[in-house]
Amino acid sequence: MTIPEDAFQHVPSLKGKIVDPATSFYRVTSDTFWTPETFDATPEVFAASMVDPEDRAASLAQTMAGRLDKDLWLFAYGSLMWDPAFLFDEVRHARLAGFQRSFCVWITLGRGSPETPGLMLLLDQGRQTDGLAFRISTDKLAQEAEIIWQREMFMYGHLPKFVTIETPQGPLEALTFVVDRSSDAYTGALDLEQTAAAINQGGGPLGTTLEYLENLMDHLDIVDIEDDAMAELLVHSRKLAAARG
User: Fold this and answer.
1) Are 185 and 156 in contact (CB under 8 A)?
2) How many Cβ atoms sit within 10 Å of the Cβ of residue 241?
3) What domains sit in the chain, N to C, each tagged with a CATH number?
4) At what angle do helices 228-244 and 192-201 cross, to 10 degrees?
5) In whole angstroms, what is the distance from residue 108 CA to residue 218 CA?
6) Exposed, middle or buried: residue 202 (CB in 10 Å: 0-12, 13-18, 19+)?
7) Choice among 152, 214, 226, 232 that is catalytic
8) Type and span of the H or E element at 94
9) Which end of the chain is more exposed for a tag (fewer CB within 10 A), N or C?
């Protein structure tokens, strides 16, 4: 395991429940980035969905300017919680006010296609979100920040944002990724039934959006986090799937 033993000092129950970053499928750099073949997509579809590498690098440089000389906290709310891909030195339970998990970005790669677009989970404006906060030490930060940007800023619809989170050990400033409401990929305000319908239609080479939602709920349980809105969405999505046969 590439994570130090004391990283789990505040949440010992998470030990063994987080994928070793060294073995993660998502631990990619600019030299080992995904290709159209990874997503079984044409070069045209791939290029239309992916953020230009120069824009991604500029976003990283701008966001992290003046911040590489101190430890970074990152707030995770989706698959980063159980499969972060970056090396970290500490993890805590955390809560972010003013945002909530939402399937609010259309995707045509991975768990969607141009014919059956799926939905991606992001943070949108809302009440609050419970998740995990990871600390990345200064000596690792330059390399791990690139890993994070390749993971989180590879498709359009994301914005990096520094926020204040609450942890049992006290408040922290943390980086997270929220939806870009100005993006063409943003779904806008879908209601519960519309979201469930979109989740049921979405599918691609990495599976379906419904499978992602099921995986999310399984892992929220594993890391001791509750989300009633996501649980309700899963119930509706499964009912719709059953009705369609």
Assistant:
1) yes
2) 14
3) 5-244 (3.10.490.10)
4) 60
5) 24
6) buried
7) 152
8) strand 90-107
9) C
Active-site residue flag, 152: yes
Q: Quick one: 29 exposed, middle or buried, by C-beta within 10 A (0-12, 13-18, 19+)?
A: exposed
- Over residues 43-90, the pLDDT tens digits come to 888 888 888 889 999 999 999 999 999 999 999 999 999 999 999 999
Mean pLDDT for the stretch of residues 94-113: 93
> Measured between alpha carbons, how far apart are the two ends of the chain, in Å?
43
pLDDT tens digits, 123-178: 999 999 999 999 999 999 999 999 999 989 988 899 999 999 999 999 999 999 99
Q: In terms of DSSP bridges, do strands 170-179 and 158-167 run parallel, antiparallel, or are they unpaired?
A: antiparallel
Residue 48's CB is within 10 A of a number of other CB atoms, namely: 13
